[in-house]
Amino acid sequence: MKLNEQTSLKPSGEAPAWGTSIKPEMQTVMETLASLGGKPIETLDAKEARMQPTPTDAVMKIMKINNMSMPPALCDTINKEIPVTGGTTQIRIYTPKEGTAPFPVIVYYHGGGFVIADINVYNASSQGLCEQTGAIVVSVEYPKGPEQKFPAAHMVAFDAYKWVIENATSFNGDSTKMALVGESAGGNLAANVSIMARDQKLKMPLYQVLVYPLANNDLESESYVKYAKAKPLNKPMMAWFVKNALENSAQAADPRISLVNANLAGMPKTLIIAAEIDPLQTEGELLNEKLKAANVETDYELYNGVTHEFFGMAAVVPQAKEAQALAAKKLKTAFGM
């Protein structure tokens, strides 16, 4: 079966108590993830946590079970080490196989609470963005806690953005047409890169897509209470991320973490993509309001029946396909494509 023939997935059990509105495809992914036997992240140390099965592993297993074949990749990839504060970091450059260079450039930051995951786990998001926009995507690896705590990831995220501006021509990119995309912790990094570019009078991105961004430190918000036990992200995990990523819990109030308290004036046009069954839902909504109050042109799209991490699951979750298509449409408009 081809990927885009979207098979309808049927979950084996009832909808979970933590997400009664969950869509069948999303529930199937969560059931499959549970079947992989991972331990609760919040009970582990960071090294063990990084070894646990991921939602990406669940999607791959579903595809295998259902004989869903990956379509041929429309983008080539190359890994590269680049210089950043304190050493080097890895980037992966996704380049469209067709089209005319120089290409617009999307700098992408993956999720994982500043502690777990990497560019491999989030490959599907970068690949999907490259294929649907016809732009180059540069996926950035960054330091994680507890080995390297806040603000290490923020510094490297910005260093990578600067490197891309200075070196875009070397990989057929157009540094006059740049955008930022980030998921979860990466959504926080993307917004911070825009803020730093503004403050340091560096070239601003034309657009930013923030996918369920980490944007506040309120663990008692409406969605934190309602989805405290959700999967794959829950309240105890968020507390664990805070403990591992920050020097102390007071740092969670820093406007670089709690973006809702940052100066958001002069930010690029923004799309916020949110998931219903997600502890971070409320803060994404609040960030949308704060951006609008700062006169930033902002769109907010809430996808019902899906959880945190749904965006990269276009192979099996229809809402992810829709969300990627919306992001691609907005980015192409910003690039004048």
The CATH architecture category equals 3-Layer(aba) Sandwich
Overall CATH class:
Alpha Beta
Give the overall pLDDT as a whole number. 96
What is the CATH topology classification name?
A: Rossmann fold
Which residues form runs of ≥5 with pLDDT under 50? 1-5
Shape: globular
Q: How would a crystallographer describe the biggest sheet?
A: 8 strands, mixed
Helix proportion: 25-40%
Strand content: 15-25%
Task: Provide structural commentary.
The radius of gyration is 19 Å and the shape is globular. It has a single domain (75-335), classed as Alpha/Beta hydrolase fold, catalytic domain (Rossmann fold), CATH 3.40.50.1820. The chain has an eight-stranded mixed sheet with strand order 1-2-4-3-5-6-7-8, sandwiched between helices. Helix 6 (185-199) links the parallel strand 5 and strand 6. By secondary structure, the protein is α/β, with parallel strands linked by helices. The protein has helices at 24-35, 46-49, 55-65, 123-133, 152-167, 185-199, 222-226, 235-245, 281-293, 318-335, and strands at 75-84, 87-96, 103-109, 136-140, 173-183, 207-211, 269-277, 298-307. Mean pLDDT is 96; it is low at 1-5. Helix 4 (123-133) crosses helix 10 and helix 5 crosses helix 6 (185-199). Helix content is 34%, strand content 20%. The chain has ten helices and eight strands.
